[in-house]
Each structure stands twice: as C-alpha cells, then as structure tokens.
Amino acid sequence: MVNLAPDESIGYGNLAVAHLRLKQHEEAEVWIKRGLEVEPMDSQLHFILAEIYQSRSRATEAVAAIQEAVKLAPDDLETRYKLARHYLSQRDNPDAMDEAILHLRELRDRTPANVVVLLKLANAFLRREQVEEAKRICMELNALLWDTDEEFLKYLKQGLLLIGQGDTKGAARYIQIFENVQKRSPRYQQGIGELVTNILGHPIESFSSGFKARIKAKQTLPIRTNFVDVTQEVGLGNLNGTRSKILLTDYDNDGNLDLYTTSAVLDAESNLFRNEGRQFVRTTTVGHRGDTAAFADLDKDGDPDLYLSGDEGSTLLLNDGAGNFTEMTDFAVPASDQRSKDHGGGPSLFVDYDHDGDLDLFTTGNRVEMYRNNADGVFSDVSDQTFIPSERPGARDARLGDFDDDGDLDLLIANDGNGCTLYTNLRQGKMQALTDEIGVSQNHVFTAIAVSDYDNDGDIDLFLATDGETPHQLYRNRGDGTYAPDGRSHEETLNDAKGVHGLDAHFLDYDNDGFLDLWLIGTPKKGDGRGVFLFRNDGTGRFTDASNVLPNTIRSGGEGTVGDYDNDGDLDLFLTDSDGGVVALRNEGGNQNSWLQVKLENIDGIGAKVELKAGELYQMKYVTDPITHFGLGKEKQADVLRVVWTNGVPQNVITPKSNQLILEKQVLKGSCPFLYVYDGAGYQFVTDLLWRSPLGMVTPGGFLAAAETADYVKISGELMQPKAGVYSLQITEELWETAYFDMVKLLAVDHPAGTQIFVDEKYTPPPFPDFKIYTTKEIHHPRIALDHHGYDVSEALKAVDYRYAIEHEPGPFQGVVDPHFIVLDLEDVPDDLGLTLFLTGWIFPTDTSINLALSQNPAINPHFPYLQV
Question: 395 FRET partner, CA 20 to 30 A, in 387, 417, 448, 497?
C-alpha cells in the first residue's frame, strides 16, 4: 500500500499497526513517523503513535500524542474518551479531574444518550463536590434509563437522595454501584462500543478525502431518451379532485406496479388502480380520505397493507392479497390536530428504527412522532422516550437511511420552520436530534428532500429543495454523516430552477447509466416559468439540465413517484398536476443501457442496504420502494449484488444476469461457526459450535446473554479419516458473525467396543452443564412416540438425519413456532437400573433483533425444551 499510494497515510499507519501487534515497537514507531511526515494533520496517525508510546511505557509522550489527536479530530469519541480516562486515573490530582470533566462534557454534548459518559461525568462531579451538576446528570440518567429494573435503579435513586442531602461521598458510592450493575446491560455495552475499540492498534480503514478528489471520474455520454405523456393512454385522464399523494405498489403481487391516489378534499375519492399490463383500471375506492399514505407489509403475509392519515384521523387497512382492504380495529394514531395545516402534515414512513425485524411508524406534522410496532397489531407511542430532546419540530418532508453509515437507520426531516434535523439512531430505542452539527445550512426553508448516493462513493448525499426564496441545496456526504455543499452543479444547473417552490424531489437513474439523476417537482414563481426539472448526472457528480426530455406541457406539479410500470427496464414518472389530476410519463429509450431490479420479500426489505458492483461501477441504495432499480450502463451483468438486512445480516447474489428482476428472500440465519471433518472422500458437516458463547446477544428480558467460555461437541470416530497422515478439521464462519478462539483441542476417547459416548451439548441459561462423557452400551428407542397431533413419529426419531420429527409451520420469528410436544412411551425399566434420555436435534436460534421484538410482545413466550414425567 505504501508503494501504491505513497502520498496516503493509510499504508504507513496500517504497517505500523501490524508491527505493533507483533510487539515490534521500534519498527512501528519508524513507520508511523514516516506517515506523519506525509500527513502530519492525520489524527488517526497520532492516535496510533499514542498506542505505540503507551506500549513502550512512555506515558508523557503518549498523552501528548493523544492530546494532538483530540486537537485534530475534536469530534472523534474514542480519542477524546481515551484522554478523559487518562485524567480520571489520576484520582488525587484536582487539575486532572477538571480536565477529565472538560472532556467528558464534550463527549456528553456529542453523544448525550451514552450512559457510560453520563455515569463517569456524574462521579467526576461528585469527586469535585459539584453537587448541582452531579444532580442534573443523575436526573438525565434517571430519565434515560426509566425502563431499567427497579432492583438496579434503586442505587441511582439512592445516589440522587444522598446528593440532595449534600452527602457527595455516599452518593458517589451508590452511583458507582449503579454503574457496576449496569455494565452487563445492553445500553452500557453500546456506550462502551461507541467509545472503545478493544483491539491493539486501531487500523486506518479509508483513504483521505483528497485521494478521492485525485481520482478522475469517468464522464458518461447521454443516450437518446425522452418521456412521453401517456396519461390518457393508460386510463388516468379523468380523475377529479385534488390529489395529495400518489404511490406505486404491487398490491396483488402479479408483478405489475399498481397506482394509488389519495385526496384530502371532502368530495374527492382515494382510488386504487390495478395495472393490467399497460393500462390502469380503477378497482377499489378506499372509503377513507387522507392527505398522507404509506404501503408496507405490516402483518408479514406477503402483500402491502395501507396506512392513511388526514383530518378524519389515522387508519390501517390490511390487504388480503386480492385487493380487499379491511380496516384494522384498535389501531390508533393521533389525528389531524397534530398535523401541519400548511403542508398537509408531510409524509409518514414505515421504518424499523429499533432493528427488531418489524416496521415501526414515523409520522410528521406539527411535531414528529414514533410509534413502535409490538408485533401483535398494536403500535405504542414511544415518541417521548425515543427522541432526544423530547421537544420536537414539525416536518414538511422526511426520508430514512443510514446517513452516518454506522449500521442503523436514521431519519432526516425538513423542519416546519427553517432548516432540517437529522435524527441519528443511538440504538436501544433512542434517536438524537442534530442540526448545525451535520453541516447543512439552517437558513433556508426546505420544502422537499431527496436522499441517495449520487456520487457512488458509498454514503448518502442530499438534495434539499427550498420554497424558491433561496437556491436549492445539494450536499455531499463527507463519509461520517456530516455534509459539505456540492458547488459543482450550483452555478450552471441548479440556478436554472431558482425561484421554483419545490414540492417533491427524487433521485433516479432514468437513462440506466449507473449514476443517479435528479427530478425536481414544484411550482414556478413566474406564471410562464417551468416548475418541473430533470437534471442528468454525467458520472462525475455534476448535474446538467436535461429537462428537454420531458414534455414541454409539464410546467408544474405537486407530488411525484417513480417506477417501471410497464416492466420494460427503465423508470417511468407519475406526478400530480395543478388541476388535481395525475400525469403519467413513459420512459422511452432508457432501457438501451443494461439494468437490474431487486425485490426483497421480508417486509419489502424497507431500510435494507443494497450494494451492486459491476466492473468499475459501484452503487449503493437503501430500500424504500417495492422494487429497487439499478442501471448498469454498458456492463452486461453485475459481479455481485449484496443485501444487508436491517438486522445487519448480509446476503450475496453472485454474478446476477442483467435485464431481469431478482426476487431475494431473507434466508434463515445460521448462528455459530460450522465444524467439518475429513472423512476420506471430502469434508462432512458435523455440527455448529459456541452456542454457549454469544458475545453481545441480548435476551428477550433485555439483558446480555451469559457466555460460557468452554464448549464440547462430539465427533464420531467413524467419521474421521486421516488426510496425509493427520486428522483434518475445518471451522467456518458463516459470514454474519465473527468467532474468537483462544484454543481448539481434539480429545480422543477410548471406549469399549459396542458402546457409544455422548456429551451434553445443549444450550440453556446458566448454570451451564459441566463437561461429562456419558457412556452407554444398550440403546433403546421409545416403544412408541406420538406428536401433539397424535401422529406416530417413532420411525422419524430413530435416525440422526437432520430432519425434524415434527413438521412446523413457520412462526412470526425464526426460532419461534407454536408450542408442541412428543409423548414417549418407554419400555419397562427395572427400578434398580438408571435411565438416561438422549435427544439429538437442531434448534434454530433467535438473535438480538428477534429477542428485542419478543420483549415487546408478551403474548409470545418462547421457552427451552423441557421434560415432564
């Protein structure tokens, strides 16, 4: 890397890290200092230098290096926390404690919901006898941890009581006890994860921002494309009333995108149009008006359900798959008194904000709200517990995505007043409001938002439409969730749309060249002006006005939506016009370039991250629509398509062919490493490992699962055959987890011929079973075995064939099925003989996301297998 990119710090830094891990400290120091000669302002290099000094017991130099790293990167949490911990360790030095408080305050400002920071800060204030400050921090902790078990919360409350009495030493003792009992909690572990990377030598993971700028992007040439007004042709020419929302969805799962229109006007109807190939036919009039609507598969039956909200309140309509929508009773979301009067309340979004595998509801209006899906048909208002601070702005528009690329979904809103707010996901059901911190100017009235990775560098960029009084804004993501204005298109292009009151905006690849273009819909300030623009991305991140491919008669619009309604491989446009009708614009020519479309089955994959690599072309999108569309340009096929589901599990499709729709279903997730042995002909699967050692898994009760450090599994001796004179075993990681091994041993057990041995491999809550070898000579199968339906499953229980003795209908979650049992009729056993039952089977595990969902739905109460006599 040093030879390939000698002007980049990444090679020097990572070479230094490699030497540091090998305890070659002198070589590590040489390489890190060479890196600092190349890039003296790189904070990561100073951080690594501090670790090198620390490993060589040069404490003073280590502190100086970490101070320089903090100076260069004041927002880096890990660097600042490392410095704060240094000062906290100097317990008898008041000046050091003041320095610790200073840095902990800075950390609190940057991550206000981090319980580790708050607990350290509370104790630091108490040690300096700053009573009011300590009380305020403890009150914040009490509000943040309101759902903590009272058995543990009592220590915090006792600390608060002693603070009120002026007993700072006693209070500090109880706050320390509270921190100790919190250390196993998910929130504390998440806080540690934000602040500390528990590896020696923190590697540098990316090139500098200047490196990307030095790589010249390849400009793509336009192809002959135009949009044709087919409104009359497709049967949408006679709609009356004011359409406030139009949506595309495949409500009947026939492979064609259907059209839904809403109306908030009293005499107008909300209609569902079935796509019958190239014609839309009105099939259903939904008996509810609404100025906002959203489709999502909320009951997980494979078809989209419909949420409506307006002056009459909010309604959830369940789809039976045939286009019949039935109102869901007991569904309640506040009605229009919470909604903005001048913008129709903005959109409502379904988003799995807590990453538990079901879709929650985010609504906008006079203030934003979050309703958690409890997986039992009930949505709970968790707004006050979710948003930090609890005072919340109204919103004109909203979009979802992982804006800071930290593995969880965030929300961006256009404020009802000036500016915008990014709600960054802190996990554990918390979202923090950021405004100025993200780098977006707050001096504009933003009226519409479009978000996507328009420069194909792997992070989400922004287009923010304004009310026309100020220019529309285009922002590039710096790679960390903060933004810088992108001036490449402002002067020549976006100024063409100056004075347009933007009402909607979309990124789309209308010419399938692999780069996202921009569609702006609005109304012109001048009566004869244009209000609808299409800007083409030329592949370098620069947008040029391509509005001439639109019909000249389309001068203004309100709401828009994008999709390939005629299944010809290019994206078509639909928008509401100034007369309250719907305009359909068919794309003609965009499919000259190759394309690929992806439909995800599990809850439509909303919020999943989809990446595509085709030759030199890389693209990344977050799923928000039924079908995710990729243009491939001149590439004949993609190299790989990768889906990262909202629970963090990746899934790959290798070399998918172009010009097709890929239906990708979330597969059942394996859990642990797999063990294979060589049997003389090849490698055979034996079992999986480390069930008892899950790191960081949260139980349905909300606590970290206990982990056993030793695991024993049986390998049949007949299965193992030598390969080149040795027994060969292989352990594989199944891509979605990382396994840590300190030691792997093969124990040979010599037992008499005609006997069999077993070890207890079951996973249970503590106490874990001790290692013990069970030996048996006579094996007896049950005389008869009946399942809970009364069927005889005796034969199915006799063979270890990895087939279930009882077939189960899939439950709502992996690892959870309806209760079931097997009745075993054993032969008579003399009283003086012992009886041991051996059960061999396979249980699909739950994971943290599923356990979180289970904790929200007490009606589902899974339990481990048990025996009744």
Answer: 497
Q: Where residue 336 falls among pLDDT bands split at 50, 70, 90? A: very low
**DSSP H or E run through 631:** strand 628-633
| Tokens of residue 157, six digits | 């409350």
pLDDT in tens, 152-198: 999 999 999 999 999 999 999 999 999 999 988 888 888 888 898 76
The DSSP code for 816 is B
Q: What is the pLDDT of residues 570-599, one digit of tens each?
A: 999 999 987 778 999 999 999 999 999 999
Q: In what order do the strands lie in the sheet with 420-427?
A: 387-388, 430-434, 420-427, 410-415, 395-401
Q: At what angle do helices 43-55 and 25-38 cross, to 10 degrees?
A: 160
Element housing 10 (H / E): helix 9-21
Q: Are strands 461-466 and 420-427 parallel, antiparallel or unpaired?
A: unpaired
Closest CA to 408 of 621, 598, 609, 610: 609
pLDDT tens digits for 834-857? 788 888 887 777 778 888 888 887
Produce one character per residue of 272-287: b if its CB has 16 or more CB atoms within 10 Å, e if not: bbbbeeeebebebebe
What 3-state class would DSSP assign to 85?
helix
Task: Residue 93: count other Cβ atoms within 10 Å of its Cβ.
Answer: 12
The tokens describing 78, both together, are 């890990």
740, 695 Cβ separation under 8 angstroms? yes
Q: Please write the tens of the pLDDT for every residue from 289-299.
A: 667 889 999 88
The token pair that represents 547 in the structure block: 């509005």
94 exposure class (CB count in 10 Å sphere: 0-12, 13-18, 19+)? exposed
Query: Can you tell me the distance from the alpha carbon of 522 to that of 795, in angstroms, rounded to the nearest whole number?
Result: 70
- Name the band, by pLDDT with cuts 50, 70 and 90, for residue 340: very low
Token pair for 763: 């996973």
Give the span between the Cα atoms of 217 and 207, in whole angstroms.
16
pLDDT, the chain, mean:
87
Residue 72: name the closest of 41, 40, 45 by CA: 41
* Helix residue spans in 343-459 (DSSP H): 383-386
Residue 599 amino acid letter: K
Please report, for residues 108, 694, 865, the alpha-carbon distance to residue 698 in angstroms, rounded to integers and kept in the order given: 25, 9, 20
Place of tokens 């009802």: 416
Q: Which phi-psi region, left, alpha or beta, contains residue 441 (left: φ > 0; alpha: ψ -120 to 50)?
A: beta
Strands 500-508 and 483-485: unpaired
